[in-house]
Automatic annotation (TrEMBL):
It comes from the Eukaryota. It is an enzyme of class 2 (transferase). Pfam families: GST_C (PF00043). This is glutathione transferase. One of its GO terms (cellular component) is cytoplasm. Its main location: cytoplasm. Its EC number is 2.5.1.18. Belongs to the GST superfamily. Theta family. Residues 22-154 form the GST C-terminal domain. It is found in: Cytoplasm. It catalyses: RX + glutathione = an S-substituted glutathione + a halide anion + H(+). InterPro entries: Glutathione-S-Trfase_C-like, Glutathione-S-Trfase_C_sf, GST_C, GST_C_Theta, GST_Theta. PANTHER family: GLUTATHIONE S-TRANSFERASE THETA-1, PTHR43917.
Length: 154
């Protein structure tokens, strides 16, 4: 959870870019971390659950209108994310990767895990993803998300 991430960043005195000491940059990270609960997390999880869990529980395919509706909800928050948080910056808090970027990308990997690519047709979002992956390290990023990306095979 967010509280645990912030605790760990403070306790282990992680490099400043993860949770900046500069108050403006920190406020930007905090703003995103507060917003994401009901936006990207809420809508991304809803799509994930609709495409994965609902058919498993009911034994029925998801009605196309339901899938369209939850996909549109996710698209609305993706637009907000690009316009409000990414703007023309490299990362959410500016020129360096932060906890906000890690949390944001992790939430966007859920829909990807069930076959919905939130980065498709969104060059700004796709480029941001590449930068975050590079900052973390591609191998570590892939290892971390391997289970999620292979969940459809369960």
């Amino acid at each position: 959870s967010i509280a645990i991430l912030l605790y760990l960043a403070r306790k282990f005195k992680t490099p400043d870019h993860w949770y900046p000491s500069d108050l403006q940059k920190r406020a930007r990270v905090d703003e995103y971390l507060s917003w994401q609960h009901v936006s990207i997390r809420g809508k991304g999880s809803k799509l994930f659950l609709t495409k994965m869990l609902l058919p498993m529980l009911t034994g029925q395919p998801v009605p196309p209108e339901k899938l369209k509706s939850v996909t549109e909800e996710l698209n609305v928050v993706l637009n907000q994310f690009e316009e409000k948080f990414l703007q023309d910056k490299l990362y959410i808090a500016g020129s360096e990767v932060s906890l906000a970027d890690l949390v944001a990308l992790m939430e966007l990997m859920q829909p990807l895990g069930v076959g919905h690519d939130p980065f498709e047709g969104r060059p700004k979002l796709a480029e941001w993803r590449r930068r975050v992956e590079d900052a973390v390290g591609k191998q570590l990023f892939q290892e971390t998300h391997e289970g999620l990306l292979n969940i459809k095979g369960l």
